[in-house]
Amino acid sequence: CPPCGEKQMRVVGWRRVASTLSPSPPAPQSQAGGDAARWARMYEVVRRRGLVLPNSEVYGGLASALDFGPLGAQLKKNLRDRWWRDFVERRRNCMGLESSVLMNRAVWEAAGHLSSFTDPLVECKLCHARFRADHLEQGSGGQGYMCPCPQKNTDFSEPKEFNMLFQTRYGCTEDSPMIPLRPETAQGIFTQFPAIVRNHRPRLPFGVGQVGKSFRNEISPGHMLFRMREFEQMELEFFCKPEEATHWYQYWVQESLQWLLDLGIPSEMLRCEEAVGEEAAHYAACSTDIEFLFSFGWGELWGIANRTDFDLRAHMLASGKDFSMRELQESGSTHTLPYCIEPALGLDRLMLALLSATYTEEEVLSADGQPTTRSLFRLPVDLAPIQMAVLPLSKKEPLVSIADSFADRLCSQIRCEVDVTQSIGKRYRRQDEVGTPFCVTVDFETPHDGCVTIRYRDSMFQVRMPMDQVVDIVSDSNATLWDFQGPQSTECSTG
Ligand code: ATP
To answer: Taking a C-beta distance cutoff of 8 angstroms, is the pair 88, 95 a contact?
Structure first.
């Protein structure tokens, strides 16, 4: 890394990370080696509960394209809002930006994407399936790759660089130019850098964050939300003095890691991998991937790169515009071309990581004393798509009307829904499976005593209390309600 020398960057960067994480944390028991059946059940819950839906399913779908159902869309929004709050809104020296997906082709020419945004593609000579070479298992023969086909073929075509840019025709004539759909949100920030400096007069260091869709024609998309062709990124471009780049790079690795831990992701499911010099992407001097232990093994969740002045310099040279910043010093003013540290996070991958980290299967006793397995997502209360479900014990009146008007009172403060169909036990299970932390049951006594039973998802502890008290707890202090826990109990005293 130019400011400090390659070796020092590797050692210092790693030691700081290691203060929070051990370099190679052991996989947690339940995940180790990939309990395939358990993960398959988790994916099944996610699909069955409509968090994620196959795209254009009524026409047979579109490979690897996914939609988010109402609960998935809400969960995604909650994560997006949390990131925006913590990386943009609550930082005095950071601001947001929204640039468009389609940009002048010259942007991608200058940034190197037209020539270098490639992955190595190989083809199995037996089954003709195509793979990203660095994703294939190592075999013993040929170039060392092994096809996952039943024959476990090791005879592959030579790797060729496949450019992952999607291109579309921009204009209504046949000779209108083809331009790429952005493969990262970052270039929208870099190209607006002179305008941001002109309009906002920021002092170094400062950051510009952006959330938005990116598109990559991935060779082998898959693992549900992990690798998609259309996905969403949350990127911060943090500009600093070149001599401070090492400091800020390490700072953002730590901040990113801490943010994941604060989200409730256990440290043993996270690790850092650093790439320096040649190992890093073409635009970066060095980078750290924060990896998560997904169902298929470790995979990149968040990339933090020291992009140096690569992008600003490239756009300055190609556009002929001045991207430097004037800085006043005692000796007069100087012009600096800032360095950029980029923490880049994928929203879809983050959602998959959070679901994976909070998915739990446990043996419980049903209302009739029989052992049964319940599946739940222990989602943090502020991120859960539904925070409170109101369940009338019967579809009969006045229980449903009471439940409806109670939910009406709550829903200005929390995300609330009324669930009326099926037995109360099945409804509890359904809410567990979408991570709803609290269920409130309206029973036959409620019309007489105004009390309801509130049940906490994780402990299944239940307590009966006046409806007004539930409303008070919610409105007075979310923290009191959210900390509400109790001893492990058997399910459901009410049904
Ligand atoms: P990978 O090595 O997995 O292809 P990358 O290094 O190319 O990822 P970056 O360019 O650093 O990824 O993008 C930043 C983040 O965007 C990644 O850490 C990841 O969370 C997310 N991301 C990248 N590609 C995809 C994709 N195809 N689908 C979903 N998320 C993605």
So the answer is: yes
